[in-house]
Amino acid sequence: MSKKIGLFPGSFDPFTKGHEAVVRKSLALFDEVIIGVGVNTSKKYMFDLKKRMEHISALFVDQKTISVRQFQTLTVNFCAEIGASHIIRGLRDSKDFQYEKSIAHMNFDISGIETVFFLTDQKYSAINSSIIREIKKNNGPIDSFVTKPELLF
Amino acid sequence: MSKKIGLFPGSFDPFTKGHEAVVRKSLALFDEVIIGVGVNTSKKYMFDLKKRMEHISALFVDQKTISVRQFQTLTVNFCAEIGASHIIRGLRDSKDFQYEKSIAHMNFDISGIETVFFLTDQKYSAINSSIIREIKKNNGPIDSFVTKPELLF
Amino acid sequence: MSKKIGLFPGSFDPFTKGHEAVVRKSLALFDEVIIGVGVNTSKKYMFDLKKRMEHISALFVDQKTISVRQFQTLTVNFCAEIGASHIIRGLRDSKDFQYEKSIAHMNFDISGIETVFFLTDQKYSAINSSIIREIKKNNGPIDSFVTKPELLF
Amino acid sequence: MSKKIGLFPGSFDPFTKGHEAVVRKSLALFDEVIIGVGVNTSKKYMFDLKKRMEHISALFVDQKTISVRQFQTLTVNFCAEIGASHIIRGLRDSKDFQYEKSIAHMNFDISGIETVFFLTDQKYSAINSSIIREIKKNNGPIDSFVTKPELLF
Amino acid sequence: MSKKIGLFPGSFDPFTKGHEAVVRKSLALFDEVIIGVGVNTSKKYMFDLKKRMEHISALFVDQKTISVRQFQTLTVNFCAEIGASHIIRGLRDSKDFQYEKSIAHMNFDISGIETVFFLTDQKYSAINSSIIREIKKNNGPIDSFVTKPELLF
Amino acid sequence: MSKKIGLFPGSFDPFTKGHEAVVRKSLALFDEVIIGVGVNTSKKYMFDLKKRMEHISALFVDQKTISVRQFQTLTVNFCAEIGASHIIRGLRDSKDFQYEKSIAHMNFDISGIETVFFLTDQKYSAINSSIIREIKKNNGPIDSFVTKPELLF
């Protein structure tokens, strides 16, 4: 078999312990995992793009098979560009599932690229980036949901 | 029985193959089906209203019992205006269902108008207008999800 | 258009106020509605088949366009036998929906027969036959969930 | 046991009959219930904050154990401030549940405060504030969903 | 207020760490919690009734406000018998929720007794009695899901 | 990396086109895929175990990296026995997901073995073995849901 490359795409605003666990799990099935930070120019982010990328890179600094890239096109186009055969996603609950299922079928329909899913760890299953942003906005503590949050500021 | 008229309401930004299939199914139960393009002045649409209406009309040009209208009031008020006894909706998944159920009960509570549901074809079950807009924004291909997309531009 | 016949199939052990409301709603779209009591010889029922059929017939004694029939074959085969173009089903919640969706797609795949769905009235949305059987087994009151329950005994 | 205080938080734009029923149910388990109107300065509300609070107060004018307060911090911080041991929430359907579950686990994780859930009455299960705002925007009637709606204007 | 009594009913075949956590949470809102082991003569259990009750009692031996009782009638009848104003239930996921919602509405409809819900701890959210029975049947280890499992044999 | 082995477990009564598609997808990520036919002596199957295994083997006769095995222990024990690092499962809808999530977390808790999920193809998303058995029992056609069904008899 040729080298297996998987893309883990998202806006990661911020990158949570849940995301982190999914990436670590995916290493067992892929030779290389690329974390793709999607940039949507019409969307506003709480955390600076450069900071977000540095933060993610710092978390996986010892993992030679993980890299962090930004992209500003359709996810499946970026897969083609980097040679990824699969999109990697985490699933927390059935709301997640419904949404992910639509996107995954659509991606397959337009490109033939499959999505592979891992379960988010139970202890992280309540974490999502938008709740973390809400806590941050209210000056609440986010360190139980994000590793090394100080790198984001 | 008097003439049975059904309203298929939506913003149709754009009108997908999934929508199209639901309308075709509904013809078996209604003498007349009106496709109502809802206009919400505070919402921004990707596709021009006039283009959206022409596109839908073109798809059903041979169906004398289907017509396309725009409306800018409560859906149930528009039903009363056009003499529709039922609202017609398609269901793809359980997320759809939860949302549609709330709206349908609410519509019944304020007007006594019932909603009747058809299943979206499995092959179109991943299609929704917002994903199509996202693909379009990134210059991806939308022709597997919309019939005659060229009419929208 | 030719006469529109719809089949409302189930085991109806017993036939609830929720079922009753769905049948009444379906009358607005069908010229004739047949309530089909499915008989599965390997299943055990709490209520006697003859009693169940008499009970349902009594509820609609004044509706000339409703009839009650038993059947012991695939639902879609029975549709073909009675000339029904559609299967009629009620939806209460998203658990219902998931199940009904599978069955409806399967029925369409093997026969081309469509299923049309109505929402169960909110006030009956907690009612289902198995809970009613449980109450009955414990000698609890079932008259708020079944019209004329005395006909079942 | 010491005095049991529960917080029922929300934006209540507007406060519906569904909210009202949940508060009345919660009185059986709490010595004092505080209805907390959350204020998010970056969000736009349809109904004026002062009006919303007066409306809610008027509905419970005879209940000495209910009070209405506004807050502009994390919900769990407000709990600490008012001495509430529990957050009170209503559940309508499984979409609600998924969302509420995430928030409740997050609140517990950062503060140890538990959430207790009541079911929304079936007859109010289609009501939610955003649908009511939509009806209002289109000049539809909202009095079947809100008690004393005239107090909101 | 008079003494608040809550019933936590189930078959508890066996009583899991998830059940245990819900009971402990409910103590904050009830003066007395009765764990009711429902006995259905037509159902087969893996664990002996007497063992199940001794096991549960042993877990709460230091809690004077918790007791264990068996019952063989409708849950709401047992509530009346023991003076419980509320049924207590835990919620793990949206499948649980759909089921619990039906039962709770039904119970309220026939008796006026409310159900109050707590979330199952995230770390126990995958545990349910039927999976544990499956593991046991295959001689797998159950001690991470049940406290003091040796008491069940 | 060492050889990656995945287990696709099930009762496969019968093995459907949906199962087949999941196995084919999993080949892209695993060096070897073992289809494990679980045998539960207290369960009754419609199709003979030997026939089921021959049927599955015949479908993949040209795939050297796929083999079919039966097992009669906990799934995770069988993984240990065959050296599988992952359990492979297909997901059709959110009902599937809820169930699979519980099992997967449980399996991880007792063994550390991860589960990886693929989406069932949309065109097979209504297929499941129990509906196929129902059709078969009523002498309906199953060839659109099972490849080479004649091998099962």
Main sheet properties of chain A = 5 strands, parallel
Return the structural class of chain A. Answer: alpha/beta
Give me the CATH architecture of chain A, please.
3-Layer(aba) Sandwich
Straight-line N-to-C gap of chain A = 42 Å
Explain how this protein is built.
6 copies of one chain form a homohexamer. The first copy, chain A, has a single domain, classed as Rossmann fold (3-Layer(aba) Sandwich), CATH 3.40.50. Chain A contains 5 helices and 5 strands, in the order βαβαβαβαβα. Chain A has helices at 17-26, 49-59, 75-82, 94-111, 129-137; strands at residues 5-10, 32-38, 66-71, 86-91, 114-119. A 5-stranded parallel β-sheet of chain A has the order 3-2-1-4-5, with helices on both faces. In chain A, α4 links the parallel β4 (86-91) and β5 (114-119). The termini of chain A are far apart. Chains in contact: A-B, A-D, A-E, A-F, B-C, B-D, B-F, C-D, C-E, C-F, D-E, E-F. Chain A binds chain F through residues 1, 4, 25, 28-31, 85-86, 91, 93-94, 97-98, 101, 104-105, 108, 114-119, 122, and chain F through 1, 4, 25, 28-31, 85-86, 91, 93-94, 97-98, 101, 104-105, 108, 114-119, 122. β5 of chain B pairs antiparallel with β5 of chain C, so a sheet runs across the interface.
Summarize the helices and strands and which ones pair or pack:
6 copies of one chain form a homohexamer.
Chain A: E1 5-10, H1 17-26, E2 32-38, H2 49-59, E3 66-71, H3 75-82, E4 86-91, H4 94-111, E5 114-119, H5 129-137
Parallel strand pairs in A: 1-2, 1-4, 2-3, 4-5
Summarize it.
Six copies of one chain form a homohexamer. Helices cover 37% and strands 20% of the residues of chain A.
